[in-house]
Amino acid sequence: MTKGLDRRLARHAPAALSAFRLVYGLLFAAYGSRSLFDWPVRSPVVVEFGSWPGWYAGLIEIVAGLLVAAGLFTRTAAFIASGEMAVAYFWMHQPMALWPVADPPGGNGGALSILFCFAFFLLVFIGGGPYSLDAARGRRLPLNRR
């Protein structure tokens, strides 16, 4: 019974990967947009232009998020995004408390940073999938360059 289910689900893995990549990329870009432009929802913290680290983090989130969502330079963008979230966790969240599963003072509020970090880390290894701009660019390469 599970072998049949595994086969049926495996057929849809490329579409599921694309949906995962698209959602995580757009969500990441939305967090950056919130930090820099106060959109799509108001940010509790005002990030001044060029301020360290907030403005640069927001810029990375917008650019890397949109690249991942489009599946363009997916592995590189995901690597940068994963690294940013690892730095955010260990620099901003982990010093507050050991556990990320609650907000301070009981926890450190870093669960979202961990989820983004490892989701993007996964994309570093699996890439954008067949429904990505990376795949479309690869199909246009001449045969002698493959």
TrEMBL record:
The keyword Magnesium does not apply. Signal peptide: none annotated. InterPro entries: DoxX, DoxX-like_oxidoreductase. One of its GO terms (cellular component) is plasma membrane. The chain crosses the membrane at residues 12-32, 52-69, 76-92, 112-133. Pfam families: DoxX. Belongs to the DoxX family. This is Putative integral membrane protein.
